[in-house]
Automatic annotation (TrEMBL):
Monomer. It comes from Saccharopolyspora thermophila. Belongs to the PTH family. The active site is at H25. It is found in: Cytoplasm. This is Peptidyl-tRNA hydrolase. One of its GO terms (biological process) is signal transduction. Keywords: Cytoplasm, Hydrolase, RNA-binding, tRNA-binding. PROSITE patterns: PEPT_TRNA_HYDROL_1 (PS01195), PEPT_TRNA_HYDROL_2 (PS01196), RHOGAP (PS50238). GO terms for molecular function: peptidyl-tRNA hydrolase activity; tRNA binding. It comes from the Bacteria. The record marks D97 as: Stabilizes the basic form of H active site to accept a proton. Catalyzes the release of premature peptidyl moieties from peptidyl-tRNA molecules trapped in stalled 50S ribosomal subunits, and thus maintains levels of free tRNAs and 50S ribosomes.
Amino acid sequence: MNNPDSVALIVGLGNPGPRYELTRHNIGFLVADELADRIGGKFRAHKAGAEVVEGRLAGVRAVLVKPRSFMNLSGGPVAGAVKFYKVPLESLVVIHDELDLPYGTIRLKRGGGENGHNGLRSISKSLGTRDYLRVRFGIDRPPGRMDPADYVLKDFSGAERKELPYFVDRCADAVESLITKGLEATQNVFH
């Protein structure tokens, strides 16, 4: 992606509004905010139904996207941004929470299933493919018999919040590496 003519479209998944700001499901938004700080830009409304920041990230032209829809309807805004910016799917990166990974673990992959993640399901349906890059941020499984749907909408615990800035920063580093060095090289460093 470090071709000067290419653009990386980096999508952080989350739910809009202050009620969801520090919930586990909003980790994609938190990482996107960190990346926007690195670009030196502020999110602004876009006709695709998302907020966007354009700039250079680690020397690569990048568009950061936060859908303004709720998580389960992320596909429309993501597909709209892909079309508007004419981004090939190999340059689409989606940052999301992952229940099946321990808290703070970062894993990267291309394609695969959605593992019950409704935001990914919506994106795959809208794009007609699952073949896009994913940066998965581990949020761990819910305790006891708590419903995963309730768990992802809960705020991070006090202990998790103490470590959160470090993990968000590390995840942003992984995204920068992904768009400059590629998937395999980044997996070798972050897995």
